[in-house]
Amino acid sequence: MIGFHVIAKKKLLKVGYSAFDLAVIGTLLALAGLFYVYVYGQTIVSRHPEKLVMQESSIVLASDGTTLRKIPLPESGYRKTAKLEEMPKLLVDTFLAVEDRRFYLHQGLDYKGIGRALLNNTLQMRVSEGGSSITQQLARNLYLNREQTLLRKLNEASIALALEKRLSKRDILEMYLNQIYMGEGQYGVKAAAEHYFGITNLKDLDIMQIASLAAIPKGPSIYHPGDPDGFSVKRRGLVLSVMRQQGLITQKEMATALQQEYHPPATVKEKRIGASYIDAALEEAARVTGKSKEELQTGGYTIVTGLNTGAQQALEETFSNPDLFPPNGKDQQVEAAMAIIDHRTGEVVALTGGRNPAPGRLNRAVADARQPGSAFKPIIDYGPALESGMFTPESLLPDRKAAYGSYRPENLNGVYRGQVTMKTALQQSINAPAVWLLKQVGISKATAFAAKLGIELPKEDRNLSIALGGLHAGISPLKMAQAYNVFASGGVFREAHMVRLIKDSKGKVVYEYVPRQRQAISPATAERMTAMLRSVVYEGTGKKARLNRPVAGKTGTTQLDLPGVSRKANRDLWFVGYTSEWTAAVWMGFDRTDQNNYMTEGSGKAAALFAAVMRKAFKE
Predict the structure, then answer these.
(1) Catalytic site residue 374?
(2) Rg (CA), the chain
(3) Which stretches does DSSP call E strand in 353-421?
(4) pLDDT over 90 percentage in the chain
(5) How far apart are CA 469 and CA 548, in angstroms?
(6) In what order do the strands lie in the sheet with 552-559?
């Protein structure tokens, strides 16, 4: 009997020691957990301060106020932010009633709410009250993913506690209402109100609309107002009952809201035009403000451009017609680019960098990569000659074979006339007189003239081959249009630009284009050049550019010149011209010209494309 008691006592002691060990281990684990919860959240929030700076989508507008693009946030959607003061009290109170009634009573974790949610889930009752506080939801959305694991919930709680120590309740609530995902790519209540109801002033929201917005966070994919399956209507009804229970609305107001039907806003859809233009405008905006493109796209800026929607639409519709382009090569499509400038203001009214423009694609309209050929002659040969005062359009120029050291230019068709007037030389695009003229004026003076038109040539281009448009690196359609713009505007240089105005998210103007102009060349030179360029269109190589209004312009062609390839093979086709309103430059060619990809048609094709675009833009 004594032995039995001894054995029992030893067993009890062993159990006691085990229990004690487990208690110690449990205590240590609990302390470790508490330490983890305290340290992890503080560390994460401290290491990522950028998470607390709310990104906001910027928008790009056309000259008439049309929204061209709402720029999506990286790996996200569209967000517009609003201060709490801009939100109606009923909206804020409703979100609190639905998502976190004890928001102002807890320090990040609502223990009663967590317990209540566990009980509700256990009993399989309705889940109108979530277990996560608003602070926890914000912590999850800012720093974590949606994995349903114990560690993720622990991290969420830890970050929520850290946020409560760093931010005020007001800041947390405001950030939550601007950060929360609201379905269909919309983030924040302001973006959602605009998207679902066409409302930009949040205080214009009615009770039904507020209830609809507060219904979304529980299930953004099924509870947004545009849901076709009716789940949103049931969820909205539940929210309205919560609003009534909490004394936010009356029974009559609830009944009225329950009877309302949702109707999508009758807003004009975003015009999906101007992809190349917008990319170029963002580059320009970054240059003039000193801000990065990422900052401009995610800082809630409003960027107003000079894009003319009618002209841009006409440009892109015309470029979609394959009949207006030369045949494609064996493995490439013939590409094209065009820029149109209002020479009265310098604003770029339309631009495309290709036949299939899309954000981020190669923008051929602004890339200095193509040889301008004879379209460069007014800029480097005839313009400088007129400006020198030594020559007039009637001056006789030699048209015969000549050698300038190792450089031996030839006329395209092998015909030489002995001598021709300057007007005829330009009109018929004869090479020999152009080179002779550059030699007489001098390369230094000619390049200085080009610089006045906005074209700075590098030292590699200080040779006579530039007389025929043979440039070391090439030039862009936008710069060609900019140069001809000076001829069109009586010799006045107005900088080609796309950005009119930039406002920050608070409406403060951070940049505004200030018109600047200078008399770059004499009015007489511009007038004489315009007269000669008109003769090119009506009597010379540019006949296909004619419109029902005066047009001045010049064609340009560069040959491929590869062994074993037809002498008629061309690399670049150009037309640069202007009316009394706009100046435009058109380029055609392959991105990579070779023996399998070249054009046999001439620059008349580019002139015809110019006419087709301008005719549609002017609605002739």
Answers:
(1) yes
(2) 35
(3) 396-399, 418-421
(4) 73
(5) 30
(6) 347-352, 335-342, 582-589, 570-578, 552-559
Closest CA to 334 of 584, 570, 561, 544: 570
Which pair of tokens denotes residue 335?
């590409």
Helical spans, DSSP H, in 218-308: 220-223, 231-245, 251-259, 275-289, 293-298
Block residue for tokens 């507008």: 61
Residues 6 or more apart whose Cβ sits within 8 Å of residue 43 = none
Q: How big is the CA angle at 227 (ends 226 and 231), to the nearest 5 degrees?
A: 135
**What is the biggest distance separating any 2 CA atoms in the chain, rounded to whole angstroms?**
140
Q: What is the pLDDT of residue 154?
A: 80
C-alpha span between 160 and 134 (Å, rounded): 9
CA distance 513 to 3: 102
pLDDT value of position 163:
84
Residue 328 CB burial class (10 angstroms; 0-12, 13-18, ≥19): middle
Catalytic pick among 132, 133, 212, 374: 374
**Among this protein's residues, is 99 annotated catalytic?**
yes
**pLDDT of the residue at 37:** 67
**What pTM was estimated for this model as a whole?**
0.84
> How many C-alpha atoms does 46 have within 13 Å on its Cβ side?
9
8 A C-beta contact, residue 343 and residue 306: no
Task: Give 252-265 pLDDT, tens digit per residue.
Answer: 999 999 999 998 88
Q: Is pLDDT at 28 greater than 60 in this prediction?
A: no
- Supply the DSSP string of 358-372, one letter for each residue: -TTS--TTT---B--
Percentage of the chain beyond pLDDT 70 is 88
128: confidence class by pLDDT, cuts 50, 70, 90? very low
Of 339, 209, 185, the C-alpha closest to 270 is 185
Which residues have CB under 8 Å from 138's CB, separation 6+?
160, 163, 172, 175, 176, 179
Is residue 82 within 8 A of residue 192, CB to CB? The reply is: no
Question: Has residue 117 got a pLDDT over 80?
Answer: no
Beta strands per DSSP E along 396-498: 396-399, 418-421, 492-494
Residues contacting 461, CB < 8 A, separation 6+: 447, 471, 472
Point out the catalytic residue in the list 56, 58, 99, 316. 99
- Residue 146's pLDDT is 64
**E-assigned strand segments in 491-612:** 492-494, 499-503, 509-512, 517-519, 552-559, 570-578, 582-589
pLDDT tens figures, 1-17: 555 555 666 666 666 55
